Automatic annotation (TrEMBL):
Transmembrane segments: none
Name of this protein: LysR family glycine cleavage system transcriptional activator
InterPro entries: LysR-type_TF_proteobact-type, LysR_HTH_N, LysR_subst-bd, WH-like_DNA-bd_sf, WH_DNA-bd_sf
Family the UniProt entry places it in: Belongs to the LysR transcriptional regulatory family.
Organism listed in the record: Yoonia sediminilitoris
Any single biological process term in GO: DNA-templated transcription
Pfam families per the UniProt record, alphabetical: HTH_1, LysR_substrate
Swiss-Prot/TrEMBL keywords: DNA-binding, Transcription, Transcription regulation
The keyword DNA-binding is annotated on this UniProt entry: yes
Residue ranges annotated for the HTH lysR-type domain, each copy included: 9-66
């Protein structure tokens, strides 16, 4: 069935009248809509003028519907109820589809997977589809609901694609770590150590420069898996930069030590989602990730 929006009264007025009919008074309707009593009465009177018919009369504090008002109230209540039901089903369908997440291997292995049961405590039954990759994928083209990314603090949101929205999660401290024996063998400068990287080598070199290191002097190798990287660091193969909070257990256990770096290193973590209505779990998931960074 087609209709012309120009022939319909104001939706605000229709909503005010439906609430008045359902609640039985302007005062109760105002409370239900979280507006003033006068605003509801004004909208109902405007609707009557628009339609050219009386819809309700006041009897004390109550409102009594005319026959025309009763017919319109039934139609509006049915229509708004149908809309409400369909919206609820649409939201439930989006939530049941599951949340598709793209992130770095480091984020997946060291932050999300070890703590995922905590997310499920608050969102029981939520389906999470996790795709770790070093690449910055096209969220819209690949059908992802959210991406968790790290970047240098100097990078601004203007670098994000126009079809995406970016939300800052947290700025964290990163530190250099290495096996004690390796540091003892190379005591002159951090540039004398072999360095191991994971994920985005370009970002990690930028971070090292911001920490005051001469990256042109570094002996470097990339190890794709954060867990393998940490094993290599423990084994004395090389040093790496690591999130301070996540490295603390390794330091406390004596498996690694800090590597002195001239200046502090900071990393920004952001959540990126496609513009438009987000997946119902996208923003809760981003807030949850923030708590474990």
């Amino acid at each position: 069935m087609s209709f012309d929006w120009r022939n319909l009264p104001s939706l605000t007025a229709l909503r005010a009248f439906e609430a008045t009919a359902r609640e039985g008074s302007f005062a109760n309707a105002a409370r239900a809509l979280n507006v003033t009593h006068a605003a509801v009465a004004q909208q109902v009177r405007a609707l009557e003028r628009d339609l050219g018919v009386s819809l309700a009369t006041r009897q004390g504090r109550r409102v009594v519907l005319t026959s025309a008002g009763q017919r319109l109230a039934i139609a509006l209540t049915n229509a708004f109820s149908s809309i409400s039901d369909e919206i609820a089903q649409t939201r439930a369908g989006a939530a049941s589809r599951g949340l598709r997440v793209t992130c770095s291997p480091f984020m997946a292995e060291r932050v999300i997977m070890p703590n995922l049961k905590d997310f499920w405590l608050h969102h029981s039954g939520a389906e999470i589809s996790l795709s770790p990759t070093r690449a910055y994928v096209d969220l819209v083209a690949e059908g992802f609901d959210i991406g968790i990314r790290s970047r240098h603090p100097a990078v601004q949101d203007g670098s994000i694609s126009s079809g995406l929205e970016s939300f800052h999660l947290k700025r964290i401290q990163a530190i250099g770590i290495a096996a004690p024996a390796l540091v003892n063998e190379h005591i002159n400068a951090p540039e004398d150590l072999p360095w191991l990287w994971h994920d985005d080598m370009d970002l990690e070199l930028k971070l090292m420069r911001s920490g005051g290191l001469d990256v042109d002097r570094l002996k470097q190798a990339r190890i794709g898996s954060p867990n393998l990287l940490l094993e290599a660091v423990r084994g004395g193969i090389g040093a790496t930069i690591f999130t301070e909070s996540l490295a603390q257990d390794e330091i406390d256990a004596g498996r690694v030590v800090r590597v002195d770096i001239p200046r502090p290193i900071e990393v920004d973590y952001v959540a990126v989602i496609p513009k438009g209505p987000p997946h119902p779990l996208a923003l809760p998931f981003a807030d949850w990730v923030r708590t474990f960074l």
